[in-house]
Amino acid sequence: MKRTGSAVWNGDLKTGTGTVSTESGAIDGVAYGFATRFEDAPGSNPEELIGAAHAGCFSMALSGQLAERGMTAERIETHAAVSLEKVDAGFAITKVHLDLTATIPGADTAAFREAAEAAKAGCPVSKLLDAEITLDAKLA
């Protein structure tokens, strides 16, 4: 299986502009630039897209891990905070913090936490990232 994304960039680093798109069209020509990435200007940036991808991947992986333990979630809500920091060699994504709230009728708390840790380690996006990944997991 292969999925694609694309980007177009015009101009220099600080004043240039770009757009990102996905093969499916779910994201199509979404604008990004220096100010949306390194300042707080409105628009998108690669880190928030990675955060959304990580949250989605982790949530699906958790669903699978819960099923292996005989649980089914009514709702899994995951927020991923991606940290972009200046390091010796420039900038790097150094951390991702996953904040999970799940509604699981009759959940066994220990099994839930075990499933969440397994999903964090096993999610393909987690495996891709060379960053510290932390997790806060709670049942609603």
Task: Describe the overall structure.
This protein is an alpha+beta fold. The chain has helices at 34-38, 46-68, 109-122, 124-128; strands at residues 5-10, 17-22, 30-33, 75-87, 90-103, 132-139. The strands form 2 sheets. The protein has a 3-stranded antiparallel beta sheet with strand order 1-2-3. Strands 4-5-6 form a 3-stranded mixed beta sheet, covered by helices on one side. It is elongated, with a radius of gyration of 17 Å.
Give the helix level as a range of percent. 25-40%
Flag low-confidence runs: none
Mean pLDDT across all amino acids:
96
What would you say the CATH architecture of the largest domain is? Answer: 2-Layer Sandwich
CATH homologous superfamily caption of the largest domain: K homology (KH) domain
CATH topology of the largest domain, by name, is: GMP Synthetase, Chain A, domain 3
Oligomer: single chain
Cα-to-Cα separation, first versus last residue = 35 Å
Q: Would you spell out the secondary-structure blueprint of this structure?
A:
Elements: E1 5-10, E2 17-22, E3 30-33, H1 34-38, H2 46-68, E4 75-87, E5 90-103, H3 109-122, H4 124-128, E6 132-139
Parallel strand pairs: 5-6
Antiparallel strand pairs: 1-2, 2-3, 4-5
